[in-house]
Specification:
It contains 9 helices and no strands.
Length: about 200
């Protein structure tokens, strides 16, 4: 029993340290940018005594940045999923997707800045992160077409277009634009783009 407890404590401590490093990396990326996000800067932000604590938990900087992207995606999904699941019908789910995504961006500007810095800095973006988010949107559009709520269109192209629109709005939201207004505008744009013409 004692060994099990020690292993559990060690695993909890490891997870807490990884969380601390990821949170510090997000803060440094958001504040200083990709080029200035060094292990020294992350150590200072996290209050760590040595860069070896980072390399112990993350083999490379790319692995650390991939974890930042995964964490931001997970955090966004935790905010968005309940809103989307509570909505009825593909059109309402699409509106909930847009609203909850923009609300997350407005509430977590450092997360958005960190992702923007990683992408613009040229760090490798794990395909599963980008592909998974896109696949969920494609599935929503496919479902809307099957149920007759959405007109026929290229669902992959529409999903890419919606992601690009949200990414473009992110810059405005981080600068202080009203999330509710942006959500209303994008919801109307994509309602018009996807609806069945009657």
């Amino acid at each position: 029993m004692r060994i099990t407890q020690q292993a559990s404590d060690r695993a909890g401590s490891t997870a807490a340290r990884r969380d601390q490093i990821v949170a510090a990396t997000i803060a440094v990326l958001a504040e200083r940018g990709y080029a200035a996000t060094s292990y020294d800067a992350i150590c200072a932000a996290a209050g760590l005594s040595s860069k070896r604590l980072i390399s112990y938990h993350f083999k490379t900087k790319d692995e650390l940045l991939a974890e930042v992207l995964r964490r931001v995606t997970t955090d966004a999904a935790e905010v968005m999923r309940p809103a989307i699941e509570a909505a009825n019908g593909a059109d309402e789910k699409l509106a909930a997707y847009i609203r909850s995504n923009l609300e997350f961006i407005a509430a977590q500007p450092d997360h958005v800045r960190a992702v923007q810095q990683i992408v613009s800095g040229g760090a490798p973006v794990p395909a599963e992160e980008a592909d998974g988010a896109l696949a969920r949107l494609v599935a929503l559009f496919d479902h809307g077409q099957r149920t007759g709520v959405f007109r026929k269109f290229d669902t992959v192209l529409m999903a890419v277009t919606l992601r690009a629109a949200i990414d473009a709005a992110a810059g405005r939201l981080v600068a202080g634009a009203d999330a509710a207004h942006c959500a209303e505008e994008l919801t109307e744009i994509f309602h018009r783009a996807t609806r069945v013409q009657r």
